[in-house]
Amino acid sequence: TLRYPDPDVKTNDSVRVEVPSGKMLDHVKFEPGSTAMISGGNNTGRVGIIQHRERHPGSFEIVHLKDAAGHAFATRLQNVFVIGKGNKPWISLPKGHGIKLSIIEDRAAKMAKSGR
What we know:
globular
């Protein structure tokens, strides 16, 4: 936990912390236009820009995102982790940049790699 958190930091925001001192350097708001990574569910590992958030009192809140390839997808709020401001992530992205390939695209890439 942070000893003196910034009053602007709210639930679901991400905070960048300097490890040796434990001080907060910066934070990213959970809002439309922020870059986020999915940490659970069927879309695990995907990266996209938050489009909007559906509020469902008494049920799960849904977050709609769009990835760099233009594919839109949705997931539960607790599976979304903000990783950057705008379309610039604070972390280095894995191979594929968090874009999920369709079955046909994935097969074509594997076939090209094997030389068939």
